[in-house]
UniProtKB/TrEMBL annotation:
Presence of keyword Disulfide bond: no
GO CC annotation terms, alphabetical: nucleus
Signal peptide per UniProt: none
Family: Belongs to the damage-control phosphatase family. Sugar phosphate phosphatase III subfamily.
Protein name as catalogued: Sugar phosphate phosphatase
Residue ranges constituting the Damage-control phosphatase ARMT1-like metal-binding domain according to the UniProt record: 26-433
One Pfam entry name: ARMT1-like_dom
Composition bias type Polar residues, residue spans: 1-18
Species per Swiss-Prot/TrEMBL record: Letharia columbiana
Catalytic function, reaction form: beta-D-fructose 1-phosphate + H2O = D-fructose + phosphate; beta-D-fructose 6-phosphate = dihydroxyacetone + D-glyceraldehyde 3-phosphate
Regions that span the bilayer: none
Length: 455
């Protein structure tokens, strides 16, 4: 049974029953808070939506009751049950792997599987309800509020991005040193955009958001990049440019809001600099890990910028900058130079090393690209099996099968991640000897980790 597990590396994984793990506090503290926020969001929708039918109101209250029951079960360390079938094929994958566990309990289970299971289970509460609730995003308000609260960092970043586009268009960045400097800046922007994660930071104030954004913050954080393969990626891009005929690049997204903005900046830069013919953005098809990007999040940002509706109280020149940026990204989509996809695989429980087995078409698509950029903590956990690896473990070893060729095909993987979990690989032996306790958990340290499985 479950042949997709046959190539998993033999490594202990993070478990919510381990008092020394970050999973321990996540399951006992953060998950219940997330459920409480979801319950409140449904209540707010019911009370503020006068057009809801009686049937939809009752259905919404039934979802609230299920979430309340789930929270009670979680805090009581109840045994998990198989996910109900809701007509989507991924429930079978969850339940097939579920059978390989014995008496799986909320507070004593593999963190990666159980956290994905939780969000997929919650989704059935909505898909098995009335049509009004089928596509309801219980995290939409918090995601949009975080973007609105990031006004200062957003305006600064958009102005800088448009200046870079102008520099590229006017061919001012002709020398190698200038080109490399711009590339490094774009990587830094996308990397540190990951520091604002609503799944971890559930109640950020505007001041706290601003403290994690902006050029000054990025510059001060450079010394906290504990794994930095930027030079290798630059060598790759330089080599690809010399060959001509750029192909697709992919970005596997993480958070909506300000981080999505930083990823759109990276996407635009890669296209306009001639490194990528097309950028494929991969997001989620359902509400996922609180702040992960779904199609409506992308639409909200781009159209809100283009229409000038997200920040209505800003100076006219600033609004014009944002509108032009929104129109630019909208134009990339309309021209086919940028595309958003939400494949089923990204909301399964599978570590990415299983991709060649469970989703070979997606693997072939990524292997055909010149580069695949994975953003954020969850993608890093899935790439490395959420394993309790020694920190000096090579990144390629933790990648498992994804570090190798399959049927002659391999993936170039670049991860831009600020650490908010226990797993971390690629350090030099003893590099973290003097780091503070729990240093991998709070988004202070970052990894730019690269592996080329194509050679």
């Amino acid at each position: 049974m479950a042949n997709f597990q046959s190539t998993d590396p033999s490594i202990a994984t993070s478990n919510s029953g381990d008092p020394e793990s970050f999973a321990y506090s996540t399951a006992r503290e953060r998950w219940p808070k997330i459920l409480s926020s979801a319950i409140d969001e449904i209540a707010s929708t019911i009370s503020g939506h006068n057009g809801l039918s009686k049937e939809d109101v009752e259905a919404g209250r039934a979802i609230q009751a299920k979430l309340t029951s789930l929270k009670t079960s979680m805090l009581g360390n109840a045994v998990l049950e198989p996910i109900p079938r809701d007509g989507r094929p991924d429930t079978e994958a969850y339940n097939e792997e579920f059978k390989t566990f014995k008496d799986l309990k909320w507070l004593a289970a593999p963190w990666l599987y159980t956290e994905c299971y939780m969000y997929r289970l919650i989704h059935t509460y909505f898909t098995l309800s009335t049509p009004f609730w089928h596509s309801f995003d219980m995290f939409a308000t918090s995601k949009r509020s975080s973007l609105i609260g990031s006004k200062k960092g957003t305006i600064e970043l958009v102005k800088r991005f448009r200046a870079v586009l102008q520099t590229i268009a006017e061919k001012q960045a002709v020398d190698e040193e200038t080109q490399k400097a711009i590339f490094e800046e774009m990587v830094q922007i996308s990397l540190w955009g990951n520091a604002t994660d609503l799944a971890l930071l559930t109640s950020l104030s505007v001041e706290e958001l601003n403290s994690r954004q902006g050029k000054a913050v990025r510059d001060s954080n450079k010394e906290n990049i504990v794994v930095d393969d930027t030079e290798q990626v630059w060598s790759l891009l330089s080599r690809l440019r010399s060959l001509g005929s750029p192909r697709d690049m992919h970005i596997v997204l993480d958070n909506a809001g300000f981080e999505l903005l930083t990823d759109l900046v990276l996407a635009g830069y890669l296209i306009e600099s001639g490194y990528a013919k097309k950028i494929v953005l991969h997001g989620k098809r359902m509400p996922w890990f609180v702040s992960d990007v779904n199609p409506e999040d992308l639409k909200y940002l781009i159209e809100g910028f283009a229409d000038g509706t997200i920040y209505e109280d800003i100076k006219s020149p600033d609004k014009e900058e944002l509108q032009e940026a929104g129109k630019y990204w909208r134009g990339l989509i309309q021209s086919g130079k940028m595309e958003f996809r939400a494949e089923l695989f990204w909301t399964t429980q599978h570590p990415f090393g299983r991709m060649p087995v469970v989703e070979p078409a997606l693997f072939e698509d990524l292997a055909d690209a010149d580069l695949v950029v994975y953003k954020g903590d969850l993608n890093y956990r899935k790439l490395t099996y959420d394993g309790m690896w020694p920190h000096s473990t090579p990144f390629s070893e933790a990648l498992g099968p994804l570090a190798k060729k399959h049927d002659g095909q391999g993936v170039r993987s670049l991860v831009l991640r600020t650490a908010k979990a226990d797993v971390c690989v690629g350090l030099k032996p003893g590099q973290d000897a003097n780091f503070e306790e729990g240093w991998t958990r709070h988004g202070k340290y970052a990894m730019v980790s690269y592996w080329d499985a194509k050679p």
